[in-house]
Write a structure and sequence with these properties.
The complex is a heterodimer of chains A (112) and B (242). Chain A has 112 residues and is an all-alpha fold. Chain A has four helices and no strands. Chain B folds into two domains: 162 residues, Four Helix Bundle (Hemerythrin (Met), subunit A), CATH 1.20.120.80; 34 residues, no CATH class. The chains are: A mainly alpha (112), B mainly alpha (242).
Chain lengths: 112, 242
C-alpha cells in the first residue's frame, strides 16, 4: 500500500515536471512574428549611421530578446522545471565568461 | 525504508529529481555546446581585423541574403514547435506535416549556406578605373596597385577560402560547424519523420524523442541568432576593424 502511494506520488511528479502546460499554437505563431520583427529591426538599425557605436548595445539587446524568446517559449524553459534552466544557463554564462576572457586576453578592449 | 522503482509513461526510470534523465542530459549537452560555440565566436572576434590580406567581411557579406536565410531558420523553429504541439494533441498527420516542413526549411537554410560559401570562394572583383565610385579598403588597395595609366578597368577573382586569411579561417570554421549541427539536425528530424510511419513508432505517449530533437533544433536556431548579429552585422559595421 505504501509503495503504491509512493508510486502514485512519483508518477504525478513526473507528469507535472515533464508535461507542464505548454503555450497554444497561436502563441507560437506570435513568437515567430516577434522574432521576424526583431530580425527586421536589426537589419534596419544597421543602416542608421547616426547611431555610430550606439549600434552595439541596440543589436545586443535585440539579439538577447530573440534568444530569450526562443529558449522561453520554443524550448519551454518558462514552463519546464527550473533545474533545466539552471543547467543550461550555467553553461551559457560560462560560455559568455569564456568569450570575454579570451577577448580581454587578446587585448580586444584595449584602446590605443 | 520503502523503495520504489517507477517507470514513467515514456519508458524512462524514476530519478531523485523526478525529471527524465535523457532530457536533463540534453540540457547539459546544450549548455556545454554553448561553450563550444563561444570559443569559436571569441576566436572570430579576437582575430577580427588582424588579416594581412583581403577579402574582408565588408567585401563578401551580403546582408539581404543572410537575412532571408535567418528568416528561413526562424520559421523552421516555429514549424518544429508546432510539430511537437501537434504530437502532444495526438495529431499524427499534423506532426508529419510540420516535421517535413521543418526538414525542408532546414535544408533550404543549408542551401543558402552552400550558395554563400560558393559565392565567397568565387568572389569576383570588378573595378572601373575611370569612375571607381565608392570602394572598400581592400578594393582601394587593388585600385592603387592595378589601375595604372591606360587601364580602364580591373577584373579578377579574389576568392575567400579558409586558407586565404584569418577572417576566412575563423569564419568558415564557425559557420561550417554550425552548418554541421544543422545537417545533423535535418538527418535527426528526417529519421523521426520516417519513424512516424511505423506503427507505434511516434506516439503522444512517447513524445520525449521529438522533444529532445526539438530542443536540439531550437539550440541551432539560437546559435544562429548570435552568429547573425556578431559575425554578419558587426562584421560589416564600419566602427569595428574589418
Amino acid at each position: 500500500m505504501a509503495t503504491e502511494n509512493i508510486n502514485k506520488a512519483l508518477d504525478s511528479n513526473i507528469v507535472h515536471t515533464t508535461h507542464s502546460e505548454h503555450p497554444s499554437a497561436a502563441t507560437y505563431f506570435k513568437v515567430a512574428m516577434a522574432l521576424c520583427l526583431l530580425t527586421g529591426l536589426e537589419v534596419v538599425v544597421f543602416f542608421f549611421e547616426w547611431l555610430s557605436y550606439g549600434i552595439i548595445p541596440v543589436l545586443a539587446i535585440l539579439s538577447v530578446a530573440k534568444f530569450a524568446l526562443v529558449i522561453m517559449f520554443y524550448m519551454h524553459l518558462k514552463f519546464d522545471n527550473n533545474l533545466f534552466s539552471t543547467l543550461f544557463l550555467t553553461g551559457l554564462f560560462l560560455a559568455i565568461g569564456v568569450t570575454f576572457a579570451l577577448m580581454a586576453l587578446f587585448r580586444w578592449f584595449h584602446v590605443a | 525504508m520503502a523503495e520504489a522503482t517507477v517507470s514513467n509513461h515514456e519508458g524512462g526510470h524514476q530519478t531523485t529529481t523526478g525529471l527524465n534523465h535523457r532530457k536533463m542530459l540534453m540540457w547539459v549537452f546544450l549548455g556545454s555546446d554553448c561553450m563550444f560555440f563561444a570559443t569559436l565566436i571569441a576566436t572570430y572576434l579576437v582575430y577580427k581585423g588582424k588579416s594581412l590580406s583581403g577579402p574582408m567581411p565588408i567585401d563578401v557579406f551580403s546582408i539581404p541574403v543572410t537575412t532571408v536565410s535567418t528568416f528561413v531558420l526562424l520559421m523552421s523553429s516555429m514549424s518544429m514547435v508546432l510539430a511537437y504541439s501537434a504530437l502532444r494533441k495526438g495529431s499524427l498527420k499534423g506532426y508529419r506535416t510540420w516535421m517535413i516542413s521543418t526538414v525542408i526549411l532546414g535544408s533550404t537554410f543549408l542551401g543558402f549556406q552552400t550558395f554563400e560559401f560558393y559565392e565567397f570562394a568565387n568572389h569576383h572583383v570588378h573595378i572601373d578605373c575611370i569612375n571607381p565610385g565608392e570602394l572598400t579598403d581592400y578594393e582601394q588597395g587593388l585600385f592603387d596597385k592595378n589601375c595604372t595609366e591606360g587601364v580602364d578597368h580591373y577584373d579578377a577573382q579574389h576568392g575567400l577560402t579558409p586558407k586565404t586569411n584569418l577572417f576566412g579561417t575563423t569564419f568558415f570554421v564557425l559557420t561550417g560547424l554550425h552548418g554541421t549541427h544543422v545537417t545533423i539536425g535535418v538527418i535527426w528530424l528526417m529519421s523521426l519523420f520516417l519513424y512516424s510511419f511505423k506503427k507505434g513508432g511516434v506516439t503522444p505517449e512517447r513524445d520525449l524523442d521529438t522533444d529532445l530533437a526539438a530542443l536540439y533544433w531550437h539550440f541551432v536556431d539560437i546559435v544562429w541568432i548570435v552568429i547573425f548579429a556578431v559575425v554578419y552585422l558587426f562584421g560589416v559595421f564600419e566602427g569595428f576593424p574589418t
